[in-house]
Design a protein that fits this description.
The protein is α/β, with parallel strands linked by helices and about 500 residues long. It is built from 18 helices and 14 strands. Helix 1 packs across helix 12 and helix 15 crosses helix 18. The protein starts with 15 loop residues before the first helix and ends with a helix.
């Protein structure tokens, strides 16, 4: 069946209130085909669907999936969490063909960032995706941040601002709505909001100069959406996390910053919100505070969740907790964004840009050599020092340099190591082979530093590849900082380690 933006069909409920409540939800689902319940809800007023790695098997499958959704509702917003770099859904099983934000910030060429975002947008649009929960505009001012890190363009607000604007411009030139996140800024946190409620104790002056600068730039660039952060910022609102704060979403973002596009929450089922408020009450509070859409489905992905949230919003209107006009306004903003995605002009494919990701990854490398460092010409042993990935990155996506080194140097072996004895275990496993040590964020994991100390004491010819935020001093016979662990970053590093 066909539905125009803001229109109705015979199968929709006559109750505008229920329809609006469905319209503001952005749910997920499991599997690589659309379940019957999701298609039915699209006919009843649901206007958005969120896709995650579990929904993607191939570009062909994804294209067929989005076509099936549009056969039910032709104005549907199909959203995805495709930051590229470490956080990829489009290439969840292989690793991204594009470096992430930290690599682009390291290059600091805004035209390159725009070109990367444009090509990414083209690929998303070709698969039928028209809404991307990206870019991250967070200023990674806290090196210990466990959830942002390489997802940020960097620690300098001006650098993050100019690259955020370039990314928004490139992505939207492809007809894909950008969703700048995580407002008002998640960079100065030491807690992952998937697991608990982070708190930023910076002063209002610091927040305005640092955290808000990239969002101002994104708004000036015309970002179609902004995602709220589940963080407590006492200088702005001492009582409510940003997602539930009218002071932050309405007074600051809409009033002071002048933003009039869609506001969507981060995943409402994340512990920072759900543990204290529950997803139903949290959703009501978010819409009342000024959010227009509720992202849900990263963890909860079933019809019952959609029903519970719809009914909670309707009940809140009936009880007077949520003004009906606020819900209607939110639903109208969702429909307005749908109209934009359906009518905006899209940049045409540029076959010359298909390798732009590798070009960017190569330019992002920081390479430090010592005089004795020589390229590899025999199969090495790749020791991967692993720590738990944050939930945003996930565990499905491969990373590192071993795959590309194996292609270049057949016989390459690899193994993962962790913990206090990782260095000695890697030495024993490597035997007399040259060692390539691969790690992410050594500065956040003291055991990694110890492991490298052990390796380098016995094997000073060890090659070190840092694929996180490079904070620790370079060391080893050859040290390569990739500024991210995307597949394309591993390829670029392998080219340096074992050139053709």
């Amino acid at each position: 069946m066909t539905t125009l933006a803001g229109g109705t069909t015979a199968s929709e409920p006559k109750d505008r209130l229920s329809r609006d409540a469905l319209t503001v939800l952005q749910p997920g689902f499991t599997g690589t085909t659309a379940p019957d319940w999701l298609l039915r809800r699209l006919g009843e007023g649901l206007a958005s669907v969120g896709l995650f790695g579990r929904n993607v098997a191939s570009p062909e499958q994804l294209t067929a999936l989005t076509a099936r959704l549009r056969a039910e509702r032709d104005d549907v917003l199909v959203a995805i969490d495709e930051e590229s770099g470490d956080v990829t859904r489009l290439e969840v099983h292989t690793g991204s063909s594009f470096p992430g934000n930290n690599a682009l910030g390291a290059v600091d060429d805004v035209e390159l960032t725009r070109e990367v975002a444009l090509e990414l947008g083209r690929r998303l649009a070709a698969c039928g995706v028209n809404f991307n929960w990206a870019p991250s505009a967070d200023v990674n001012s806290n090196p210990a941040n466990p959830v942002i890190g390489v997802r940020s363009f960097g620690a300098d607000p001006d650098l993050v601002a100019r690259h955020t604007a370039a990314y928004v411009t490139g992505l939207q030139a492809a007809g894909v709505a950008a969703c700048t996140k995580h407002f008002p800024g998640h960079g100065d946190t030491a807690v992952d909001s998937h697991l608990a409620l982070p708190r930023i104790d910076a002063t209002a002056d610091v927040l305005h100069a640092r955290e808000l600068a990239p969002f101002r730039a994104a708004i000036a660039a015309g970002t179609r959406a902004v995602m709220s952060a589940h963080i407590l910022v006492p200088a702005l609102d001492p009582d409510r996390p940003a997602t539930l704060s009218r002071t932050i979403l309405t007074d600051l973002l809409r009033g002071e910053l002048g933003y009039d596009g869609l506001i969507v929450t981060d995943g409402i089922e994340m512990q920072a919100i759900s543990a204290a408020y529950g997803i139903e009450h949290g959703s009501v509070l978010a819409i009342a505070a000024g959010a227009d859409a509720i992202c849900v489905g990263g963890g909860l992905s079933d019809e019952e969740t959609v029903r519970r949230l719809r009914d909670a919003l309707v009940a809140a209107v009936h009880s007077g907790e949520l003004p009906e006009e606020r819900l209607a306004e939110a639903a109208d903003r969702v429909r307005s964004l749908a109209r934009w995605t359906a009518t905006t002009e899209r940049a045409q494919p540029d076959h010359a840009a298909t390798d732009i990701g590798l070009v960017a990854a190569r330019r992002a490398l920081d390479v430090t050599r010592v005089d004795s460092a020589a390229p590899l010409n025999t199969a090495p042993f790749v020791a991967v020092f692993t720590s738990a990935s944050n939930i945003a990155v996930g565990t499905e996506t491969p990373w590192g340099v071993a795959a590309e080194l194996s292609r270049r140097l057949p016989g390459t072996e690899t193994a993962d190591f962790t913990g206090d004895h990782a260095g000695q275990e890697a030495l024993s496993a490597a035997g007399d082979r040259r060692i390539v040590a691969v790690l992410r964020d050594e500065h956040r994991h003291p055991w990694m530093t110890t492991a490298l100390d052990v390796l380098l004491k016995s094997r000073p010819d060890t090659i070190v590849v840092e694929m996180g935020v490079p904070q620790a001093p370079p060391r080893g016979a050859l040290h390569i900082a990739t500024h991210g662990a995307a597949q394309v970053c591993g390829t670029a590093a392998a080219e340096v380690i074992a050139p053709d």
